[in-house]
Write a structure and sequence with these properties.
Layout (H helix, E strand, L loop, with lengths): L1 E4 L10 H14 L2 E4 L8 H7 L1 H16 L5 E3 L2 H16 L1 H11 L9 E3 H5 L2 H10 L8 E5 L8 H4 L9 H8 L3 E2 L13 H4 L1 H17 L4 E4 L2 H10 L8 E3 H9 L4 H5 L7 H6 L5
Parallel strand pairs: 1-2, 1-3, 3-4, 5-6, 5-7, 7-8
Helix pairs in contact: 1-13, 2-3, 3-4, 4-5
Length: 283
């Protein structure tokens, strides 16, 4: 199984542990990630907010790069995934814009490749079975709430996820690695996203509400699939007893017994190691 890998900007900066655990888990599962050569930023919140055309042209260039590989694109960042997906749809449906971009980028769009999020790739029925087989250190006794955030699964007419209000793909993965998925009603609520800089008070309120809800549900940790969500919840929750927030790939890596886990976990503001030791998952 081979994909054109679009890591996005946060993987090498604020979400290093997401990148490291993604590389390790994919290698363990036999998923080959071929990083796009000379990829560029998708435009993130800035282009999306200020220049609609730029927010499509930037990710369209990455679509062109991926087409040269003949591989489907996989992205770990929900924003990158959404922006590349939107550009690909624009290329498919808007003939005038497609011709303009083809001339600008020097390629001919063929529409053969798909854009997929990492969680989507790792949670197919085939991969779930492979995850079960690869698990050597089950996360027995660890109660996990899955947090998808507000971007990953919406809008459903574009993303095509299982359920935009109550997705279960991450829950199935957590079950496959031996954890106890805990149901809750905050799976797709917003954490405040990029308001962390301009309205940190809003992010503190929203992130604290999510952490409180996780505690009330009886969760030990929150599993997430977004760099922005992770850093907001990890650094902005205003609770006395804080809830650790891990990437789903980190929990998979722990369950696989992969080396380097300690390097990932020590990067968290809310240290997840005490609860993992308490549950007998870490020595």
């Amino acid at each position: 199984m081979k994909f054109a890998y679009y890591p996005g900007c946060t993987i090498g900066t604020t979400a290093v542990e997401f990148g490291l655990s993604t590389d390790a888990v994919c290698e363990a599962l036999g998923v080959e990630l071929v990083e796009l050569e000379d990829w560029n930023c998708c435009g993130a919140s800035s282009a999306h907010s200020l220049d609609h055309e730029l927010s499509l042209r930037l990710p369209a260039r990455n679509v062109a790069l991926a087409q040269g590989t003949g591989l489907d694109i996989v992205a770990p960042c929900p924003a990158c995934y959404q922006h590349v997906l939107a550009a690909d749809i624009k290329l498919r449906e808007d003939e005038t814009w497609r011709r303009e971009m083809e001339e600008m980028l020097g390629f001919t769009y063929d529409g053969q490749e798909r854009t997929r999020h990492l969680l989507e790739v790792l949670s197919t029925s085939e991969m779930i079975e492979r995850v079960r087989q690869r698990t050597t250190h089950p996360l027995k006794g660890l109660r996990v709430v899955s947090y998808y955030g507000c971007v990953l699964v919406r809008p459903p007419e574009i993303t095509g996820w299982d359920d935009p209000e109550h997705p279960v793909r991450m829950d199935l993965l957590m079950e496959a690695v031996g954890a106890e998925p805990v149901d809750w009603s905050y799976k797709v609520d917003c954490c405040g996203a990029s308001l962390a800089l301009s309205r940190s008070d809003v992010v503190v309120t929203l992130s604290t509400r999510l952490a409180e809800a996780a505690r009330e549900a009886g969760a030990d940790v929150i599993a997430c699939a977004c760099g922005m969500c992770q850093i907001n919840l990890d650094t902005r929750q205003a609770l006395e007893e804080k809830v650790p927030v891990l990437y789903f790939t980190e929990l998979m890596g722990i369950a696989f017994g992969l080396p380097g886990v300690e390097k990932w976990l020590k990067k968290h503001t809310v240290d997840p190691r005490p609860v993992l030791r308490e549950r007998g998952i870490l020595p």
